[in-house]
Model the fold of this input.
Amino acid sequence: MKIFKDEEKLSPEYVPPNLPHRENELNMLKTFFSSVIDGTPSISTRVIVSGSVGTGKSALVKLFGQKAVSEASKKGVDLKFLYVNCRINRTAFSVLRKLIEQLKARLPERGLSNEEFIHKLLDYLDYKGSCAILALDEVEMLLREEGSEPLYLFSRVGEERLKIPRVSTIFIFRNLEILDALDASTRSSLLGNIIHLKEYDYNQLYDIIKYRASLAFRPDVLMEDAIQLIADIASERGDARYALDILWRAGKYAEAENASQVAPEHVRKAAASVYPTIRREHLEFLEQHSKLILLALAQALDVEKSAYVTSGILNDYYRMVCEEYDLEPRSYTSFWEALQRLDDLGIVKIRVVSEGSKGRKSYISLPGIPTSILREELKPLLPSKKTRH
Done:
């Protein structure tokens, strides 16, 4: 069964036409660079974009670059957007060479200092009547390789000429604490316009997954429960990149099994392959009834064909499992306490949902391991049904 319409739409390098829940930050970048886009910059603009992994920093800046160039073009302004990843280009010279390559400028690459290189670059932009927005991503790598000097150099590049400032800059950091280690002059040249991206919450991740799935998958192949489960798993880290990786892998598992839909079990397999959170040694030290609850959860999720079951339904399955092993089930209070301990260990996840007049319900999921693997891992850890007394 063909699952994907265009799996490239889930690639980390793909920049979608919209970024759900980053509209405000995109507008803020447009505001900061409005004079550059209009072709009337009076000063060189410097902006820092910060945020942890998977908060959409690179995608935000790249999408802004695309939109800025398009808008400037409509106004007759020749604006260049130049993006360099400092994890790949870790020295100032390597960054400068990448800039020249993107501009398709015929400039000498040997025998020039970094400062001379920058002046040649500015001469080229002057000659073309162009302006440029330079975006440096993962700037921490540049700092680790060569210290603060390259950062000072790039932060001041737009101030090198008395005429029109030809270059403005965006610096992308994961953590701004690294700026504390810089000398005062470099730090003062950077600080000012800062856009910090917060980690995504469950609802935001749900929207992102649903949107990207609409671009990547064929219609109606992704089950609603699968979307919820991915959002649930990824919300622990607030990481959209992690969510999209799970989404892509779940699609590949479904395709490999010739399934007609991407189901919660495919998501569990994908999550286990991306970030295996549960190993046999974690299960060995659980007390017996906690293992029985996990076995009941695996059975309940399989039978109900769902990403979640309510605590009430799970308790019914737990009692059936206890009967299979000829063991006395614990009281509901003891069952719930054991379930909460499993949640604390990160083996299960409890999500409490308010259902209006019906009160609150607890939904239980198994985020880190496929039900089929959990069953196999639990088998040798439980007493044999044949020899029970």
Notes: The first strand starts at residue 46 and ends at 50.
